[in-house]
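Marked as duplicate of an earlier ticket. Keeping the data here for the record.
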Amino acid sequence: MTYVQATPFLKKRIGVVMYQTSTSKGQELVAQRMVSYFRRCGHEAYLIASVYHDGKEIISEESIGENEYILTSDDELQIPIIRVGSFTSRWPPRRVLFKDSIHTLERIVNEFRLNVLITHSTLWNGPEEVAKFVEWGRKIKELGGYQDPLIFCHMSHFQEPSPRRYSLIEHSFRIAWNQLSLKTIIHVANLVLVVTPDEKVEKVKMGAPRDKCILFPGGIDDNSFMNYSTSNPQELFEQLKLPPDTKIVTYLGTIEERKNPKTVLDVAEKMTDRMKIHFVIAGRGDSEYANQVRQRATNLLNVTYLGEISEKEKVQLIELSYLNILLSKMEALGLAQLEFMFRGVPVITSAVGGQSWIVRNRLEGIHVKGYNDVEGTTHAIMELVDDHSE
């Protein structure tokens, strides 16, 4: 990939705001890769995140101290991260919130002389507080005070709240947040970054001017493929202990109900008579659902459950795979599918959300009839495995 270097005049100082870091979750990966991409283009960019990584506190409050934030260097993510005081919320569930965020944000913007802020995700206070902070600065300027220009962009990775996934209480709260907080954030933002054209339609319905919505679909971390281009995929193949002519069908993603790997196991169970087709389940999972997937996979001779894998192993697994499979119930985009397609691996997908856009039916892969289409998925695998045409 070619990176266009910013001229000194156009060089920006960018803060990308996300509630935590991760080595497996899509939204966090997009934010982290965005920082890496900007830095390779010559901009000064930082990730502004909590003290949490994949839900676990990795920096203590004592480390942050009275400064309320600390600049860290992450050897694994290879980007500079400004960690701020934060806590896990009781509501909304599964979210991390920043402490005293307006005051902390003001100090970070001033110390690092940031002139661009890009917030990610929904249902947490980062985007809301940045919107308030930006609007505050605009009001200061309107009233005659001096304020350095500050560009605000928001990328929500938007998915319509689904009653299939959430309880009535959480479903209704998400609708309320979108109608109130998200609409305000969209109004204040200079740019709204969307991951698919379908999301752009939704944002326009919410009141965003069409020309404010910019397609930014995340993307490939091609550094990983370059870094491990000389690694031998056979190392992983030998660990799997499979016959040389085995065709590997890979599920790669977090082991969670939304991603629906249990249905992948349903498909594998129907194909136990095709032992030259082997399913691999890889990804992070620490829930009861993940335990159930692991236990069931262990009982199937044509399935290997790898669990969380390293970046090197991920690249090797993609190189070894004959097919990628994803039967998600909801999916804003699907970074893993971009990575498989980047290496020429076809994708069998439930085609929900952004999947229907990034994977074109009968071109990059096959769309089946929804996330529970076991028969259609089985037929699609057979069709592609038995297709000997070039």
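See parent ticket for discussion. The mean pLDDT is 92.
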